[in-house]
Amino acid sequence: MNSTQNKTPKIGVLLVNLGTPEGTDYWSIRRYLSEFLSDKRVIELSSFLWQPILQGIILSIRPHRLGRSYERVWDKAQNKSPLAVITQNQAETLQIDLLDQHICVEWAMRYGKPSVKDKLTFLKDEGCQKILILPLYPQYSATTTATVNDEVFRVLMQYRQQPAIRTLYSFADHPDYIEALKQTIQEKLETLSEAPERILLSFHGLPHRYVDAGDPYEQECHKTAAALRNALEKTKEEMPLVYQSRFGPDKWLGPNIADVITEYTGQGIQRIAVIAPGFMADCLETKEEIDHEYRELFLSKGGKEFTYIPCLNDHPLAIKLLKKIISQEIQGWI
Ligand SMILES: C=CC1=C(C)c2cc3[nH]c(cc4nc(cc5[nH]c(cc1n2)c(C)c5CCC(=O)O)C(CCC(=O)O)=C4C)c(C)c3C=C
Ligand SMILES: [Fe+2]
Ligand SMILES: [Fe+2]
């Protein structure tokens, strides 16, 4: 008898988010970026071309600047990045709610720690013979969702007795996701003395050629934007879709958020709000890039009021959404 056979069968749920460095120092960031940017799902270039550029140039320069950015948002009490702190909160809250159903909830990062390998092994050792993989990306992309699945199945290659696995594709227009976004937007707007003239829906960008090659991410973002506009009775003009976080020289999906902000200030628009519906948790890309860099850009160009609407994080509606997804995806398993 092995340890698995001694335990009551349970269902495992593994929440997976992008990644995190272990600290804000040069080597921690370098290790993390090296793992992330060596993933062929993320950078579709031959290793022969890309690795010298990555190891020789990018990883000599970028970790310094990125380390300073992480330093500004780092959770010093827990010594973790915000993405790790919030993902852990989501998993722990779900675990409390789902304990009585014999569901074991864990969280992992695709890059860095806790690794998918360690957490799958933990779930297996806990006696989970059925595991739901829940990538925390509302919109499917090969660069995010698929690489999580790749990693899961790479780990499973080493198991003699594999658990049954289900993977979540996406939840781009799940009614509970749209409802949660709608309510967080309304909650924030109620705190303002004047309504913003525009509410930007900012999504992480993707190189255009990935979409041309068949990545459905752009369509998925449009699905979310359309559902949200519909729920809030807004037009495309009032609630535009924009992309952020461009990286490298490729042509990326547009319109780019910085260009749109510049265009608005040129038109005399003075109050905008920004939400990032593609992230289930606030992270460097929202706290630093949106709430800091784009706020400064808008204000420096004459804008008056910039409102950042936080991600769903551990809002009760986010937990409700994740519980709903889990119950839908494990149907027939209980
Ligand atoms: C070609 C490079 C990149 C692709 C493609 C890409 C897709 C992609 N990323 C996210 C979510 C996140 N990305 C984050 C940071 C980040 N992303 C890239 C590059 C690509 N992302 C880099 C180099 C970085 C590091 C920061 C930087 O150097 O600018 C994060 C934040 C992580 C954190 O710890 O806070 C998230 C989240 C999605 C959803 C996506 C595809 C749709
Ligand atoms: Fe990214
Ligand atoms: Fe960024």
Brief synopsis:
With 334 residues, the protein is an alpha/beta fold. It is 49% helix and 16% strand. It has helices at 3-6, 26-37, 47-73, 82-98, 116-125, 142-156, 175-189, 208-212, 217-232, 257-266, 284-300, 316-329, and strands at residues 10-20, 103-112, 128-135, 164-167, 198-204, 241-244, 271-275, 305-309.
Structure description:
Keywords: Cytoplasm, Heme biosynthesis, Iron, Lyase, Metal-binding, Porphyrin biosynthesis. It is found in: Cytoplasm. It comes from Commensalibacter intestini. Fe(2+) binds at residues 204, 285. By secondary structure, the protein is α/β, with parallel strands linked by helices. It is built from 12 helices and 8 strands. The strands form 2 sheets. The protein has a 4-stranded parallel sheet, with helices on both faces. Helix 2 (26-37) packs across helix 3, helix 7 packs across helix 9 (217-232) and helix 7 (175-189) packs antiparallel against helix 12 (316-329). The radius of gyration is 20 Å and the shape is globular. The relative contact order is 0.14. The protein binds the ligand C=CC1=C(C)c2cc3[nH]c(cc4nc(cc5[nH]c(cc1n2)c(C)c5CCC(=O)O)C(CCC(=O)O)=C4C)c(C)c3C=C and fe (ii) ion (2 copies). One fe (ii) ion is lined by residues 204, 245.
Write the layout of secondary structure elements.
Elements: H1 3-6, E1 10-20, H2 26-37, H3 47-73, H4 82-98, E2 103-112, H5 116-125, E3 128-135, H6 142-156, E4 164-167, H7 175-189, E5 198-204, H8 208-212, H9 217-232, E6 241-244, H10 257-266, E7 271-275, H11 284-300, E8 305-309, H12 316-329
Parallel strand pairs: 1-2, 1-3, 3-4, 5-6, 5-7, 7-8
Helix pairs in contact: 2-3, 4-12, 7-9, 7-12
The structure holds ligand L6N33NVT and fe (ii) ion (2 copies).
